[in-house]
Design goal:
five-stranded mixed beta sheet, six-stranded antiparallel beta sheet, Tumour Suppressor Smad4, single chain, 10 helices, alpha+beta
Length: 324
């Protein structure tokens, strides 16, 4: 395949290397996956890309890279047209000379028709335009003749360059002080976006309904009155402690005496003394001889007949009352 253009390294560690561009897309950088691999240490793995579209060449600089064309730094993440020949500076060391094959580059011209017969050309154009106006179209004969080849090319290409107006072949600063820019656009992107939006609409609706259901369920399960919940917990704890008072006929154990005295203090409204007595019982539950694994009855198991499990019930009830 004949080369569409050629890159020549004119400065830097790779000076003198040549790279013929035979494909429509070429990547340049230090990475081994690039078509043109350079060795300068200040270059990125992917320093730049050169693409051929509409019979012209354009250059692309990824983010965090520096590419200068004929002394003008091009913006990153944008495509910029290249002239037929240009000096491209990559990083601080490497300079590359870009030379496009004249046969591979389309240069806009505004001259007379190729056959030199101006009148016949006008007549032919007028005849074609009149025919197309009768059918509701004003396309020129050249557009009509090349419709099929352009449609085939559009199917083969992934994307096409869109510009506001035909750019010149030289890289020049615009009125805003920036280089001319290009944008990649998929011809069917709006349709894909619309189709994707329609497909996502039911998903969004289901998500909103599910969230609403979960919120409603949470409102039903969460007690809107924390004070009432705490009151129920306190009442349950006192009911548990009541089971540890012992029988009136038998001699009470020391912890039972403390629990009974705490009940008296509670009935008299002395909350401070009540809690002090509960803490003494809690210390008895946590004493070394009680928590000893060899003590199978613990502190209260002998009276309740439930072994060490009754200690855990009493401890949980006391901690609930002390936390209020």
């Amino acid at each position: 395949m004949d080369a569409l253009a050629q890159l020549t390294v004119t400065d830097g560690p790779d000076r003198g290397r040549l790279f013929p561009i035979a494909d429509d897309l070429v990547h340049v950088g230090r990475g081994a996956e690039n078509q043109f691999v350079l060795t300068a240490p200040d270059l990125a793995d992917h320093q730049a890309s050169i693409v051929r579209r509409q019979n012209r060449f354009a250059i692309f600089a990824p983010e965090q890279t520096r590419v200068v064309v004929d002394g003008n730094a091009i913006p990153t993440e944008r495509w910029v047209w290249l002239p037929v020949s240009a000096t491209i500076q990559l990083g601080s060391e490497t300079a590359i000379r870009f030379e496009a094959n004249q046969a591979a580059v389309e240069v806009p011209t505004t001259g007379k028709p190729a056959n030199g017969n101006t009148e016949s050309g006008k007549a032919e154009g007028s005849s074609v335009i009149r025919k197309r106006r009768r059918n509701g179209s004003t396309q020129s004969s050249q557009t009509i003749r090349t419709r099929k080849p352009r449609q085939a090319a559009r199917k083969a290409q992934v994307a096409k360059f869109i510009t506001d107006r035909p750019g010149e072949t030289l890289v020049r600063l615009g009125e805003d002080g920036h280089l001319p820019e290009l944008q990649l656009s998929e011809s069917d992107a709006p349709r894909k976006t619309e189709r994707s939006t329609r497909q996502q609409s039911p998903v969004v609706l289901y998500a909103v309904l599910t969230t609403s259901f979960l919120v409603s369920l949470a409102l039903l399960l969460v007690d809107p009155n924390p004070a009432s919940t705490q009151s129920r917990d306190t009442s349950s704890a006192r009911a548990v402690i009541r089971d540890f008072y012992g029988d009136a006929e038998s001699e009470p154990q020391p912890y039972q005496k403390l629990l009974r005295q705490a009940l008296i203090e509670h009935s008299q409204g002395d909350e401070r003394e009540e809690k002090r007595l509960y803490r003494r019982v809690l210390r008895m539950l946590n004493s070394a001889d009680i928590v000893d694994p060899h003590n199978l009855n613990g502190l209260t198991g002998k009276e309740t007949g439930r072994g060490r499990s009754s200690d855990e019930d009493l401890r949980a009830a006391l901690e609930t009352l002390l936390a209020e």
